[in-house]
Amino acid sequence: MLKGRHIDIMGIINLTDDSFYAESRCVDQEAVLERAGQMIAEGATILDFGASSSRPGSEPVGPDEEWRRLEPALSAVRDRWPEVEISIDTTWSSVVSRAYDLIGEIWVNDISSGQDDPQMLPLVGKLGLKYIAMHKRGDARTMQSMTDYDDVVEDVIGFFKEFAVKAQECGVRNWILDPGFGFAKTVSQNYIMMRDLRRFRLPYPSVGIPKILVGVSRKSMIYKALDITPEESLPQTQVLHLKALQEGADILRVHDVAEAKRTVEVYWRLC
Q1: pLDDT band of 86, cuts 50, 70, 90
Q2: Are 26 and 15 a contacting pair, CB within 8 Å?
């Protein structure tokens, strides 16, 4: 166990009507403020706003529609809770630029690690923002993804070694590693990554040993493996959260903040 490190809980707020877990959907201002307030009260240190679902079968939206959904939510939350860290789950540099102009410093949570928009990494480097780089292959929405790894952990590490060079060239100095649970991995490959999560804790160019974000909350690696629904997956999510913390995770991206917070407290008692 890695003692003494800071652990963040990132609460998920989806400004969509088609995210895979219905409870996370906030389609009006009242719902956004209610969910944000509850998450902050329960211990979230970061709020992650997503305005386009990446679940299989979902329809992508362009940057203008993303921004239409994001702008009022970001303004309202920043006005009411100016101290809370805000993250934007987007692959569009134009959305990041608009959000920065509106509310200032943000985190950027990019499931494409800059692959979908060549302007993303240069913009993040220019603005000096925290950046979450996630591993995936193919298109998550159309389920056209490749899962043929020789060694899934080594292959994903290789991806981040290449990403680190690009990040360094673009001036991105503060990036967080997200292995991409559920993206272009089979159920068994997801569990291999979780079991060996500590292998990702190695030095990369410019950033050194990056923080690791784990996003497994109510995902298919749980409900498909156990033949249950996302709604029934909370207990097993906490099992995986505890394992992730034991293996060195620094940030848990979650739907259920109170439960994750209690899991972190139990983890510290085990250290």
Answers
A1: very high
A2: yes
Which positions are annotated as active-site residues? 219, 253
Q: Buried b / exposed e across 15-43, counting CB within 10 Å, b at 16+?
A: bbeebbbeebbbeeeeebbebbeebbebb
Residue 158: phi and psi, rounded to 5, are -60, -40
On whether the CB atoms of residues 141 and 60 are closer than 8 A, the answer is yes
Confidence class for position 264, pLDDT limits 50, 70, 90: very high
What SS3 state is found at 8? strand
User: What pairs with residue 130 in β-bridges?
Assistant: 107
DSSP type of residue 184: S
Rounded Cα distance between 86 and 124, Å, is: 15
**Residue pointed to by tokens 């100095």:** 173
Q: pTM of the full predicted structure?
A: 0.93
Q: Which two tokens stand for residue 240?
A: 């995986």
Which tokens hold the place of 50?
């997503």
For the residues of 14-35, what is the DSSP string, one character each? E-SS--SSGGGB--SHHHHHHH
Three state DSSP letters for 41-85 = HHCCCEEEEECCCCCCCCCCCCHHHHHHHHHHHHHHHHHHCCCCE
C-alpha 220, offset from chain centre: 15
